[in-house]
Amino acid sequence: MRRVYLDNNATTPVLSEVLDAMRPYFGEHFGNASSIHHHGQETRAAVERARESVAALLGCRASEVVFTSGGTEADNLAVFGVTQPGDHVITSTIEHHAVLNACKHPARDRAKYRDSQGCEVTYVPVDGRGLVDPVDVKRAIRPNTKLITIMFANNETGVLQSVAEIGKVAAEADIYFHTDAVQAAGKIPIDVNNIGCDLLTISGHKLHGPQGVGALYVRKGTELEAMLYGGNHERSRRAGTENVPGIVGLGKAAELAIAGFARGDATKMAVARDRLERELLKIEATGLNGADPNGGDLSGKRAPRVPNTTNIYFDGIEGEALVIALDLKGLAVSTGAACSSGAIEPSHVLMAMGLGRDRAKASIRLSLGKQNTEEDVDFALGLIPETVARLRDLSPVWPKKALSI
Ligand code: PLP
């Protein structure tokens, strides 16, 4: 059976060049990067080359890149690393759970913050398009605000926040600004100095690198307390023997992403995504999540987005049922964040954007990767309209045309 994968925001396939770059570090180059002998020096050099590549992707210095086990750890390190008991944190209602749960985890009261009230958190809302208003962020600032953490690109809708404006707000108030750029990295160019952030998260497996590796950009001078206790790895910011093959893979993925921008890959991807979206929106009672619900005509009312993602509701169907029906025919899409698939609750992101429960549950996300072709889009377009129609026919709540005549 032909299989087409349009769930690249969950994870991307590792590019062959990335795998080729990683392979020697599972075999002949096996040294511990902290060892002082030949084998260690070899892998140390590879780790530092990868650090340079990641720094080039983010527009920062290599010394400002801290390798982690992925986006979740980098998000946690940013939140726990700069806050202290009694600090106030500002985040948004649409963050990934790696940020949301780090902000609210009871351990902040129980362990590190045993004798205190932990940190207070303000969740700024988003509008119908999923956009945070920087004015709301500014308004939420208190004398004890230590950290603003607002994501760059949303994993469910692809909507891009005005991070540079939020960065200005943070800088003016002398507050640390972290942005989770897991879904932006590799899809759009990133420059930490344009954003004005102090901390920025990326994850290998979202940009055609391996799973289980990521990085946190930490601006020079940021006072970051390590979360893991152990050796002095990563300049004492993240203890633990480096995942050399993973780091090499992330470095290669970063290089390939930079080359892809120069080639215009993002524009090509946006063309394919836009065609997919345009055709799907011709189905009756569908709509784009990330457009202004009061805007009538969708054109011009859309929020800025990464080039690979679309999130669409099909009234009268269950998103989960559509995902399963499409999977049976060889098309992989999703209802939103992979880690909450199977959850009965509708997406917190779509609910925060003001969608009703039914519409939020009737939504699916389609996300393209570098491996996808126009033929893959054709394949999806050959399946989705008929599957939506079939599910609607089966639905007891969907008005049947025959009955309404
Ligand atoms: N942040 C965002 C926006 C994500 O989409 C994800 C993964 O889905 C993460 C953080 C977590 O990254 P990782 O899977 O590398 O832990």
| Total number of helices | 16
Bound ligands, named by name, code or SMILES: pyridoxal-5'-phosphate
Count of extended strands: 12
List SSEs in N-to-C order.
EHHEHEHHEHEHEHEEHHHEEHEHHEHH
Assembly context of the chains: single chain
| Poorly predicted regions | none
Instruction: Sketch the major β-sheet.
Output: 7 strands, mixed
Mean pLDDT: 93
What percent strand? 5-15%
Q: State the strand order across the main sheet.
A: 2-8-7-6-5-3-4
- State the share of residues found in helices, binned by percent: 25-40%
Shape: globular
Radius of gyration using CA atoms only:
22 Å
Q: Give the end-to-end Cα distance, rounded to a whole number of Å.
A: 40 Å
Q: Provide the structure class.
A: alpha/beta
